Amino acid sequence: MSEKTDESLVREYVATGSRGAFSELYDRYKDKVFNTAYRIVGDYGGARDVAHDVFLKVYLEAASFRFKASFSSWIYRITVNRSLDEARRARRRRSHASMDAVGHRLESRRPGDHPHEVAVDREREARLLEALEELSPKLRTVIALRYFEMLSYNEIAEIVARPLGTVKSRLRRAHSKLGELLEHRGFERVREE
Amino acid sequence: MDCAEVNELMVDFVEGGLSPEVHEQVRIHIDGCGDCMAELEKVSSTSRILQALGRETVKAPDDLDLEISETLRRSPTWYFLRRYGIPAAAFAAVIALVVLAIALGMIVFR
After folding, report:
1. pLDDT tens digits, residue range A145-169?
2. Least C-beta-crowded within 10 Å: which of A86, A189, B61, B93?
3. A138: domain range?
4. Among candidates B70, B5, B106, which has minimal Cα distance to A56?
5. Which of A32, A33, A190 sits opposite B49 (nearest CB)?
6. Which of B43, B58, B79 shows the shortest C-beta gap to A179?
7. What is residue A80's predicted lDDT score, i.e. its pLDDT?
8. Alpha-carbon distance A129 to A87, whole Å?
């Protein structure tokens, strides 16, 4: 990957239609977009549709990017909005997260793991996904951006276009609700050693 | 500092996002408040679970770029229309037909 900033790649792509610039942006963001979508939608196929649409939108509408915010915030915002739409559809389609979806990600991640450990991980992750699905989409979004994308409160506020206080308040409510849901699903409380 | 204020700051407290002064005020309150201590335990636990499970990224499918290229090659406009536009257009057409049928019925029976 080159040393170019995201913004300079966008400028290059908009000015020249450079496929190379678009490909580089794609490589930088494909996993971030997919991971965020997956955490919000809770479904591998749905996340795939979201990621597909996000990059098409970037490809077609990059010229509308105004450089007021960072490209990162812009693409995350598109991802979040599209994921929330997909989550609403997905909720109508099914009621539980698919174990297959969890398997997709775990199959390739730690080849040295003992099969039993992988199974336990799958079980834990499936229960977490189920619990996340019970949060409202807004609360799920802040959890996804904070813990699965490791973004700062300020970055999250910019992406969801809400004041910092609102983001913190949503995160607190998400924690409280998620804590109850995880406990209900048999997660033991993890204590500091 | 009361319980409501401490609750608002709980996640920041657990994740080390408070200034040392505010952190100390929250700590003093929690030390003397059973409800907030219980809430702290719950938030700490959830935070640890999320941090542990959130460390790994779900990778995008390897063939996603090929799928995007294929859509671009065919027609992205057609793709979006088919995906989002046609159901809306079909709904509008049904409504228009119903309105037309009612209007015609009123004319015929008048």
Report:
1. 999 999 999 999 999 999 998 999 9
2. B93
3. 6-184
4. B70
5. A190
6. B43
7. 96
8. 13
Q: Tell me the average pLDDT across A98-112.
A: 46
Q: How far apart are CA B20 and CA B15, in angstroms?
A: 13
Q: How far apart are CA B32 and CA B44, in angstroms?
A: 18
Q: Let me know if residue A192 belongs to a domain.
A: no
**d(C-alpha B52, C-alpha A189), whole Å:** 13
Complete DSSP assignment for A49-67: HHHHHHHHHHHHHGGG--S
pLDDT of residue B61: 92
Annotated domain spans of chain B: 3-53, 64-109
Neighboring chain B residues of A147 at a CB cutoff of 8 Å: 50-51, 53-54
* CATH classification of the domain holding A157: 1.20.140.160
Token code pair at residue A37: 């979508």
- The two tokens of residue B27 are 């700590």
Whether residues B49 and A128 touch (CB distance < 8 A) is answered with yes
Write down the residue that tokens 């009361």 correspond to: B2
In the structure, what pLDDT confidence band is assigned to residue A190 with cuts at 50, 70 and 90? low
Residue A190 counted as domain residue: no
- A133 domain residue, yes or no: yes
A33 within some domain: yes
CB A96 within 8 A of CB A38: no
- The number of distinct structural domains making up chain A is 1
Whether the predicted interface score ipTM is above 0.85: no
